[in-house]
Amino acid sequence: MYLPPAFTMPSPETQGVVCTFAGLAHVVVAAADGFESSPLPMLWEESTDIGPDEFGPDIGHLGWLVGHVAKPNPIVRLVGDRTVPALVILPGTDAYVSPNYYPSKRVEPRVVPTWNYDVVHVHGRLRLVDDPEWLLALVTRLTNVHEAERAEPWAVADAPNDFIEAMLRGIVGVEVRIERVEGKGKWSQNRRAKDQAGVAAGLRAEGRDTAAARVDG
Fold first, then answer.
1. What's the angle, vertex CA 135, arms to CA 133 and CA 140, rounded to 5?
2. Which is nearest to 112 in space by CA: 190, 22, 35, 58?
3. Which listed residue, 43, 48, 65, 90, has the most CB atoms within 10 A of its CB?
4. Whether residue 39 has pLDDT greater than 50
5. Where are the alpha helices (DSSP H) in 118-208?
6. CA proximity to 17, closest of 120, 146, 87
7. Domains in the chain with CATH codes
């Protein structure tokens, strides 16, 4: 990833994004004829209980990203029982930035639109997990995370056992052992203070409060 110094996330911030991630990630693995990519919900975990650890000593890495894919997904055929290098893209907040946000445009009209965004790239080793107990624990955790703030949260146990068992037979777990992370936060840091304030105000006027807060820092 292209990382100009002004937009490079400090390591603690980048790792913080990874360690609190619970959302839709984009997993990319290399194939013989290019790349295979799949969006899938993932969570960070500090350790894994699936063994033996084919990756060697569990030292010096940053935890795991875990999720699941449907068995017909091409990644399942591509990976098989191997461990393979993988890139996991964790998207964040993003926003289009109009040149009209910049107060300086009135004096210097040589400006163009741009895009502000957060993104974290996770590099590591991926393997598949075809274990019903592990998968049940995973989908339970995923469900609990995303249902937690609902007035009447749904639980996996709300569905019939035989139905859940059938659903689990149609998926395969995915574990990515994290070895390196890099993050980029492009939020108008290369603009003067008055232009940054203009961007934040413009985004708030459009209802993009989260993006505006990123500009404010």
1. 100
2. 190
3. 65
4. yes
5. 132-147, 161-168, 193-205
6. 120
7. 5-191 (2.30.110.10)
pLDDT tens digits, residue range 63-106?
999 999 999 999 999 999 999 999 999 999 999 999 999 999 88
103-109 long-range Cβ contacts below 8 angstroms, 24+ apart: 103/194, 103/195, 103/197, 103/198, 104/192, 104/194, 104/195
Dist. CA 113–CA 93, nearest whole Å: 17
Pairing relationship of beta strands 84-97 and 22-31 according to DSSP bridges: antiparallel
Look-up of token digits 């007035």 = 151
pTM: 0.89
- Cα 111 to chain centroid distance, Å, stands at 31
Written as six digits, the tokens of 5 are: 């110094």
Residues 6+ apart with CB under 8 A from 217: 187
Q: What's the one-letter identity of residue 174?
A: V
